[in-house]
Write a structure and sequence with these properties.
Layout: H1 3-18, H2 32-40, H3 54-64, H4 66-76, H5 84-90, H6 102-113, E1 124-125, E2 131-132, E3 136-145, E4 148-157, H7 161-182, H8 186-189, H9 191-206, H10 208-221, E5 228-229, E6 242-246, E7 250-252, H11 256-261, H12 266-284, E8 286-288, E9 296-299, E10 308-310, E11 316-318, H13 321-335, H14 339-348, H15 358-373, H16 382-395, H17 402-421, H18 427-443, H19 445-462, H20 466-478, H21 480-523, H22 527-551
Helix pairs in contact: 3-4, 3-5, 4-5, 4-9, 7-9, 12-17, 12-18, 13-14, 13-18, 14-15, 15-16, 16-17, 18-19, 21-22
């Protein structure tokens, strides 16, 4: 282990002691070395909190820095793994990180673009960052586009953050292995899988060239929409550690007072948020999976028909056609309170094993969801119902579906945002017509005709080879009786050979036994039995030899 890794490990150990994290492990689950640590370091300075809890864990993660903060933020969405207390506390984690030097950012940009002076590519560059986060920071600049200066922002990955992330993730995996091995719920919590999922997520955020491609795809999907605007991305200037994008001027979606002051139609804005989310998921199968308020703005123009502006495309979710269809049908079945259909869909999709009793699963879903539906619709949390469903399904051996976890996280953001803008938002009634229409399009005549049109070029391309394929198939069918007879003959030969082998083996065993008995009787000077066993042994050997010669 490198010296820097040892130093980092020592700091993590100090943090665990100071925030009493070891004490949070129940006494009966503590391995001997944890007990030894608590005994030897009883004198170590500790926080004033009387016991280790979710609050202490949040403070510890903040103390450990950006990599651990990001992990806590991700875990806060995993309500299938954590209690409500931990989920609520970890959701308070903030990315309030000190900026790094602007001159250093200029050097990184020049190095990435292979230039000596930043003004060779950009007209202006502000060394004071516009915004900072745990992974990167953003600087304002201007770029000549068609000989006209264009306001842009340049996002730059923090120097040295990749090495720190790799070191911390290796330590996280070590800790996850210990949790899996020694904690009572270690296997169920799947700590190694959680860390691996986090590793993929944070590596995606580190690759700004991938983020640029994600943003361009999302922009194409909403090119003609007045619901969502995606800034222009200048991919020719983007690299793995820097992204160049049009600078947007909008109102943070969390600044409700400012939105009200310009008479923004908040009801319409909230409903548009729901529409944008379901359009991304069910029309495009490509959705922004990091839609927290810091990444969403509202255009200052046309407040009567407000438009969202989205940024930060590092984390994107996808659904395959099967997951998408089953999810939509699940939602519609929920709207109609058809719990048997929900249970059947979970089994059909493979999310729940086929051996699960569907009727019992239906009863479990009904028990969880029926009390919720007794409330007014505008008081029902769509996302919480989804979480309740996943929790119930987990009791029936449903494994965690990573694509559904991202969807659940995004839905929590969308619903929270919508209710913040317009508390009376009835998300169920807003989403139901969209989903029903989508399901009908997938199942009805329109869907069949769409599939035919989509596959027609492929069928036309393969059509000339169809007669040869038909001829080959018919020839194969004609030869089936002959092939079948050959297989039967080969099987009979093999079976006869097996029977003969058994006979030969039996004769060999008998002759060997007779010779063994002959040797034993000779040792004990029993001439009668010696003679009989010897004669029997020779007779068996002779008989076996005759059979062998005959079969040859």
């Amino acid at each position: 282990m490198k010296l820097s890794n040892l130093s980092r490990l020592a700091f993590i150990f100090h943090t665990a002691l100071y925030y009493r994290l070891f004490s949070g492990i129940p006494k009966h689950l503590r391995p001997w070395y944890i007990k030894l640590i608590l005994l030897v370091f009883f004198w170590y300075p500790k926080t004033k909190q009387k016991s280790a809890n979710a609050y202490n864990i949040r403070l510890a993660l903040e103390s450990l820095g950006p990599v651990w903060i990001k992990l806590g933020q991700m875990l806060s969405t995993r309500k299938d793994l954590l209690s409500d207390e931990f989920s609520v506390e970890l959701s308070k984690l903030q990315d309030q990180i000190a900026p790094f030097d602007g001159e250093q950012a200029k050097h990184i940009i020049c190095q990435a673009l292979g230039i000596d002076d930043i003004h060779q590519r950009f007209e202006t560059f502000e060394t004071t960052p516009l915004a900072t986060a745990s992974i990167a920071q953003v600087h304002a600049a201007t770029l000549l586009v068609d000989q006209q200066p264009k306001d842009i922002v340049i996002k730059v990955i923090r120097p040295g953050i990749t090495q720190q992330i790799e070191a911390d993730i290796s330590l996280m995996k070590l800790a996850a292995g210990l949790v899996k091995r020694y904690l009572k719920d270690g296997v169920r919590l799947r700590p190694l899988e959680v860390i691996e999922e986090y590793e993929k997520t944070i590596h995606s955020e580190l690759n700004l060239a991938q983020e640029a491609a994600n943003g361009q795809q999302l922009k194409r999907n909403f090119e003609q929409s007045d619901d969502l605007y995606i800034p222009e991305i200048y991919s020719e200037h983007c690299r793995k550690n820097m992204l160049v994008m049009e600078r947007i001027y909008g109102i943070p979606v969390s600044d409700v007072e400012r939105l009200k002051s310009q008479n923004t139609d908040l009801k319409r804005l909230a409903e548009k948020g729901v529409s944008v989310f379901f359009t991304q998921v069910f029309r495009d199968s490509f959705f922004h999976a990091d839609m927290h308020p810091s990444n969403i703005f509202v255009a200052e123009t046309t407040p009567e028909n407000p438009q969202y502006i989205g940024i930060d495309f590092g984390i994107m979710g996808t659904l395959n056609s099967g997951d998408k269809r089953y999810l939509a049908e699940n939602f519609v079945a929920f709207f109609n309170r058809d719990y048997l259909k929900v249970a059947q869909l979970h089994v059909e999709s493979g999310w729940v094993p086929a051996h699960v009793n569907v009727e019992q699963f239906e009863m479990a879903i009904r028990t969880v969801c029926e009390p919720i539906f007794n409330k007014p619709l505008d008081q029902i949390s769509f996302a919480q119902v989804l979480i309740g469903l996943f929790d119930t399904a987990r009791q029936f051996e449903m494994e965690v579906q990573p694509q559904l976890v991202l969807l659940q996280k995004t839905l929590l953001y969308v619903e929270g945002l919508g209710r913040q803008l317009y508390p009376q938002l009835d998300l169920w009634q807003t989403a139901k017509p969209f989903l029903e229409d989508w399901v009908n399009q997938q199942i009805g005549f329109k869907s069949a005709w769409k599939q035919i049109k989509s596959n027609a070029p492929y069928w036309i391309e393969k059509a000339p080879g169809l007669p040869d394929l038909v001829h080959a198939s018919l020839t194969s069918i004609k030869q089936l009786p002959t092939l079948q007879q050959q297989l039967i003959s080969e099987y009979q030969i093999a079976q006869n050979g097996h029977k003969q082998f058994v006979k030969d083996l039996t004769l060999f065993s008998l002759s060997s036994l007779s010779l063994l008995l002959t040797a034993l009787f000779a040792k004990f000077d029993n001439q009668l039995w010696f003679g009989l066993s010897g004669f029997l042994g020779l007779a068996v050997i002779y008989f076996a030899y005759r059979v062998f010669i005959k079969n040859r």
